[in-house]
Amino acid sequence: MSAAIIIIIIVLAVIVIGYFISTQRSLVNLDELCKNALSQIEVQLNSRWDAVLALAKTAAQYAKHESETLIEVIQQRRGEQVNTPEAVNEQSSALSQVMGRLIAIGEAYPDLKAASLYKETMDGVKQYEENVRMSRMIYNDTATKMNRMVRQWPSSIVASLLHFDPKDYLKADEEQKKSYPNLDEAFKK
Predict the structure, then answer these.
(1) Long-range CB pairs of 25-32, under 8 A, 24+ apart, other chains included
(2) Residue 12's pLDDT band (boundaries 50, 70, 90)?
(3) CA-to-CA distance for 46 and 11, rounded, in angstroms?
(4) What are phi and psi of 103, to 5 degrees?
C-alpha cells in the first residue's frame, strides 16, 4: 500500500512540475512576442518618421520657415525609444500632429501638392501608417493571450510565482478619432 502511495505522489509531482515548466515556457514565449511586437512598432514608427522627414524636406522648397521647424521636431522625435504602449501612443500622436501640419503646407502650396516626389512620399507615409496599424493589432492580440494566461487559473499561479504581469494594451488615438465622421449625423432621417 505504501509503495502505491509513493508512486501516486511521484506521478502527481511529475505532472505538477511538467505543468509548471510548460506554463513557464508559454509565458516566456508570449512575453517575448509582446516585446517583439513593440519592437516592430518602433521600427515602423521610425520608418514613418524618416518618410515624414523626406516629406518635410520636399515641402521645404515651398515653405521654408514652416518646414524648418517641422524638420527640427522630426529629428528630435526620430531617435526616441518606443518600448511601452504609452510611448507608442505618444509617438503616434506626435506623428499625427506633424502630418497635419505637412498636409496644411501641401494645401497652401498647390504646386507642392502636385509634385510627384511629394505624392510618392505621401504614399510611403500612408504605407508606414498601415504597417504601424497592423503592428499595433499584433501587439494587442499577443497581449490578450498573455493577459489570459496571467489571469486564468491555474496558469495565474505560475505567472504570479514568476512575476509575470498583465500587459497594457495600445489604445486608439483620441485625436484621430475626433476626425472621424459622425455616423449618427450622417444617418439621421
Answers:
(1) 26/149, 26/155, 27/146, 27/149, 27/150, 27/155, 27/158, 27/159, 27/162, 27/164, 30/142, 30/145, 30/146, 30/149, 31/146, 31/164
(2) very high
(3) 52
(4) -65, -40
Long-range residue pairs from 112-119, CB within 8 A, at least 24 positions apart, any chain: 112/58, 112/59, 112/61, 112/62, 112/63, 115/58, 117/58, 118/55, 118/58, 118/59
pLDDT, tens digit (0-9, with 9 covering 90-100), for 69-118: 666 666 655 666 666 777 777 777 777 777 777 767 666 666 665 566 66
Type of residue numbered 98:
V
- Give the predicted TM-score (pTM) of the model: 0.64
Phi, psi of 182 (to 5 degrees): -85, 105
- Can you tell me whether residue 112 is helix, strand or coil? helix
Contact assessment for residue 133 and residue 45, using Cβ atoms and an 8 Å cutoff: no
The grid cell for 35 is: 516585446
Instruction: Tell me the pLDDT tens digit for each residue of 164-185.
Output: 888 888 877 555 555 444 545 5
Residue tagged 515624414 (cell numbers): 52
Cβ-count burial of 37 within 10 angstroms (0-12 exposed, 13-18 middle, 19+ buried)?
buried
